[in-house]
Design brief:
The protein has 464 residues and is an alpha/beta fold. Helix content is 52%, strand content 11%. The longest helix has 17 residues. The protein is globular.
Length: 464
């Protein structure tokens, strides 16, 4: 299928996902995988199937949204819930008083988010959480929901979870996976939920808190407004909506009131304040703000990022309209999204940067990290090869490639790349060599020692 516009239109109309020309690679890869999986007779036949088969459309949509998630992702939102929102809700008069607090995870993927909510509430409320809170979770892919209900997870999904909580709530299985305790699984009700559907499943009305994180990044502004209005109607008066750390500004469109608690942004459906009345007829007309300066926004965002204020940096970058974002702004956005765990968003930002500059060093490096995180080894290797082609002295590319080879058990290639990275870290950087956008937590000496440690281990395995 050379022209992807019919596929883009169908996906946009039916499930709201927005893919522009910069995302063509992602779309084509997903299309090829589903055609092979369904044994369809080419793109045209598969498109016809999509129009008639809702289940297959949901499967394609799930593949396009990557379902990158893990336990206690953006843990500051769980702290906001347990330390601030739940006490606020419990202090209100409820009719009847024993009515449980209702929480919805919209776009729950394979269940890590709603189960993290259940675990955090159990930590806060103890056994009382089972009766005090009712958790619902929805996603558009039935297969993903089945995996969520099963509650079995690999070790990588625990990378942000306290080992003590993992030991308390999970049992290791013979196949290396971990089974979530039945008591926690019983606290979450999973259901099919297409956020773009005209009517949501019955029974979802009356939510007190909605988690809607790292989902709106796939929607264009009109779709985002449509979904946000639907979710706002699900909330009880005074209910709360939590979005991803990089999505606050994009969802602050006047439908809900924005709040901040200890640096964490969230929304409520309290009535918005009416416009201020003029004190006197002679009051001068307020002048419009000066035009936005994208270069200044980027400079301020970079300074915030280097101070490790990633959320504020992303918010500042989001102020730049899409059509005015430079390659440098997209590179920085991609790096910050990756560092905050928004892998799908980071990959999308990389694709936008590479559409403007196919040899963008930072975009290629972040894209390779995204691909490695997603298990797309060949894509990661290809991006790193492009970096090394234009910047052979880029130690970061050689180090990432070494890690990639080591992941695959390719000892000799890994040793070769670690050796190159070590030598580049030993020498002084050549004049004019590109520097990382963000400073490394490790010195060049420390990084060199890490390379040497890996080389010693690989030598012990017989690598040259």
């Amino acid at each position: 299928m050379n022209d992807l516009s019919p596929l883009r239109t169908l996906i946009k109309e039916r499930i709201g996902l927005h893919f522009d020309a910069a995302s063509e690679t992602t779309l084509r890869e997903a299309l090829a995988r589903r055609i092979a999986h369904t044994a369809s007779d080419g793109p045209a036949a598969y498109l016809a199937r999509l129009r008639a088969d809702e289940t297959e459309l949901m499967a394609l949509g799930s593949l396009l949204t990557i379902n990158e998630t893990y336990f206690y992702r953006e843990a500051q939102h769980l702290e906001l819930l347990t330390d601030h929102l739940i006490p606020t809700l419990r202090a209100r008069d409820r009719a009847p008083p024993e009515t449980p607090i209702r929480i919805l995870s919209a776009g729950c993927s394979s269940g890590e988010e709603p189960y993290s909510i259940a675990i955090a509430l159990e930590q806060r409320l103890g056994a009382e959480a089972a009766a005090a809170v009712r958790i619902s979770a929805g996603d558009l892919d039935p297969e993903v929901l089945e995996r969520a209900r099963a509650g079995r997870y690999g070790a990588f999904t625990f990378r942000a979870l306290d080992p003590a909580l993992r030991a308390r709530h999970f049992t290791r299985l013979d196949n290396g996976q971990h089974q979530l305790a039945a008591a926690i699984r019983a606290r979450v009700d999973f259901l099919a939920l297409n956020l773009l559907a005209r009517d949501y499943p019955p029974g979802l009305q009356g939510q007190d808190v909605i988690f809607y994180r790292n989902v709106s990044i796939y929607f264009d502004p009109p779709t985002r407004a449509q979904v946000l209005a639907q979710l706002a109607r699900l909330l009880n008066p005074g209910g709360f909506l939590i979005v991803g750390v990089a999505e606050t500004l994009a969802n602050d469109i006047g439908l809900l009131r924005q709040h901040v608690h200890r640096g964490i942004f969230y929304f409520s459906n309290d009535p918005l304040a009416p416009p201020a009345r003029a004190l006197a007829p002679s009051r001068p007309v307020r002048r419009p703000p000066p035009p936005l300066d994208p270069a200044r926004c980027y400079t301020e965002a970079l300074a915030l990022a280097r101070a490790e204020r990633y959320t504020e940096a992303l918010t500042r970058l989001a102020m730049i309209p899409l059509e005015r974002r430079s390659v440098a702004a997209l590179e920085l956005r991609a790096l910050l999204e990756f560092e905050t765990g928004a892998i799908a968003a980071a990959q999308a930002s990389c694709e936008q940067a590479l559409a403007s500059d196919p040899w963008s060093l930072e975009a290629l490096l972040v894209s390779a990290r995204c691909a490695r995180r997603q298990g797309r080894t060949q894509a990661a290797s290809t991006q790193l090869a492009r970096v090394i082609y234009v910047q052979p002295e880029c130690w970061r590319a050689h180090y990432q490639l070494a890690e990639l080879h080591r992941d695959e058990g390719a000892a000799a290639p890994a040793a070769r790349e670690y050796r190159i990275a070590r030598n580049l870290l030993t020498a002084e950087p050549p004049p004019g060599a590109p520097r990382p956008l963000l400073p490394s937590a490790l010195s060049r000496r420390d990084l060199r020692l890490i390379c040497e440690r890996h080389l010693a281990r690989l030598a012990a395995q017989g690598a040259d």
